[in-house]
Design a protein that fits this description.
The protein has 456 residues and is α+β, with helices and mostly antiparallel strands. It has 2 domains: 204 residues, 2-Layer Sandwich (Chloramphenicol Acetyltransferase); 222 residues, Chloramphenicol acetyltransferase-like domain (Chloramphenicol Acetyltransferase, 2-Layer Sandwich). 24% of the residues lie in helices and 23% in strands. It has a 7-stranded mixed sheet with strand order 1-11-18-17-15-12-13. β8 and β9 form a beta hairpin. The longest helix has 16 residues. It starts with a strand and ends with a helix. One of its GO terms (molecular function) is acyltransferase activity, transferring groups other than amino-acyl groups. It comes from Olea europaea subsp. europaea. InterPro entries: CAT-like_dom_sf (IPR023213), Plant_Fungal_Acyltransferase (IPR050317). Keywords: Transferase.
Length: 456
């Protein structure tokens, strides 16, 4: 049966007592062209920072100070093919669109230390608030309009291990292009390796059509009456001020296999794809929707990201840099989510993903050209589960754990790999599920989680 984690870190450690030792800007190792980078309508709405932390155990051949030097050199080399990373975000006054000005203004690089050891800070999977000290989001000596779009922080622990914290503006990368960047970073940290993946930087492949053609209704999108250039985050990312409990629930490989078998009962649609993601998403949707209130006729709309690289005609290059994901959705009234066979809920999730064809994706992009809106739903499932950030091999080894820095929000449920328990999880194929809800809703979610996972 699925589990949830308790007491994952010492509550007395709310501050890692980080000491900043050095803060600098890194620049491309060779001269790059000064130019402006077009940002697609998908990029336009993602003007906020994403932070990830990558923990590494001690390696006697690579002390943290050696790692910091290697990373600096690797980054300087990568800022040539990734010239936009060293640029600055600006608003084009004529088009009223955000662009990246490739002006070699630099990325941030911070070296820090803590007197704690990796073992002392507890379960790395859990969103310990103290981990925020392992990330720098802005440099104090720079003006607001000159802040780097990317800042690295290498923090050494007294055990010889270290953390690599990365803050990037989401306009730079989606999950896949960020993973590709990390593969390149790792390759350049070696002495004699070529880049793993040559980045494809032309984002005009996702430009709106001229004239725009909206060929589908888009209930998953919300029209806004304000300019897209305003410093706003999508409503689905809003953090309402209310008391939230948060838990990490775990589904191991056996649990997921059970859900797949359950999805085959009562005859799923012949086009339904019974994948790990689809069954886990359907399972979470059911628990989340039914934990919120008692109105059986309430409509629940769940959003989840779909990579469109392979769905377009012609397909985007796998090495496409930028954001090539759109929000698919599934909607149902709560009574159906409670009483329909699990196979039908998986059908709805699969149908939502299947709807994301080339024409549907182009229609959303064109919708954004006209309405400047955001994805909108009851909640979003954000998956880092299959990205493989912990599989990137650096000269000093693979990360002990990699994950986003989590800010708990009621309307975002996060999926990420359970790599801490590989031995009990069939090579780490399980998933951790971060849920943040008001106390009474969390209690109900937990009850439903175990109820729906129980054998019939």
């Amino acid at each position: 049966m699925g589990t949830f984690r308790q007491e994952p870190f010492d509550p007395s450690i709310q501050d890692l007592k980080i000491t900043l030792q050095d803060s600098t800007l890194l620049f491309p190792s060779h001269r790059t062209e000064n130019k402006s980078i077009f940002l697609s309508n998908i990029d336009q709405i993602l003007n906020f920072n994403v932070q990830t932390i990558h923990f590494f155990t001690a390696n006697p051949d690579f002390a943290p100070e050696v790692v910091a030097c290697r990373l600096k050199t690797a980054l300087e080399k990568l800022l040539v093919p990734y010239d936009f990373m060293a640029g600055r975000l600006k608003l084009n006054p004529e088009s009223r669109r955000l662009e990246v000005e490739c002006n070699s203004a630099g990325v941030g690089f911070v070296v820090a230390s803590t007197q704690f050891s990796l073992d002392e800070i507890g379960d790395l999977v859990y969103p310990n608030p103290a981990f925020r000290g392992l990330i720098v989001q802005s440099l104090d000596n720079l003006e607001v309009d000159n802040q780097p779009l990317c800042i690295f922080q290498v923090t050494s622990f007294n055990c010889g291990g270290f953390a690599m914290g990365i803050s990037t503006n989401h306009v730079l990368f989606d999950g896949i292009s960020f993973k590709n960047f990390l593969e390149n970073l790792a390759s350049q940290a070696f002495d004699d390796k070529p880049m793993a993946i040559v980045p494809f930087n032309d984002r005009r492949l996702l430009a709106a059509r001229s004239p725009p053609r909206i060929t589908f209704p888009h209930p998953e999108m919300l029209k806004l009456e304000i300019p897209i250039s305003e410093d706003l985050s999508p409503p689905v990312f809003d953090c309402q001020k209310e008391q939230l409990d948060f838990q990490i629930f775990n589904l191991n490989s056996d649990n997921i296999s059970y859900l797949k078998e359950k999805a085959k009962i009562s005859g799923p649609n012949e086009n339904t794809k019974i994948t790990s993601f689809n069954v886990v998403t359907a399972f979470i949707w059911r628990c989340k929707a039914l934990s919120s209130g008692n109105n059986s006729q309430r409509l629940s709309t769940m959003l989840f990201a779909v990579d469109i690289r392979s769905r377009l005609k012609p397909p985007l290059p796998f090495s496409y840099c930028g954001n090539a994901v759109l929000s698919a959705y599934a909607s149902s009234i709560c009574s159906k989510l409670e009483n329909e066979p699990f196979s039908r809920i998986v059908d709805m999730v699969s149908e939502g993903a299947g709807q994301m064809t080339d024409e549907y994706a182009r229609s959303i992009i064109d919708w954004g050209e006209i309405y400047k809106g955001f994805p909108n739903g009851e909640f979003m499932i954000s998956s880092w589960w299959k990205l493989g950030l912990s599989e990137v091999k650096y000269p000093w080894g693979k990360p002990r754990y990699s994950s986003p820095v989590v800010y708990t929000r009621k309307n975002i449920i996060l999926l990420f790999p359970d790599t801490n328990n590989r031995s009990n999880n069939k090579n780490g194929n399980g998933v951790n599920i971060l849920v943040a809800l008001p106390p009474k809703e969390m209690e109900k979610f937990q009850t439903l989680f175990h109820k729906f996972l129980a054998s019939d």
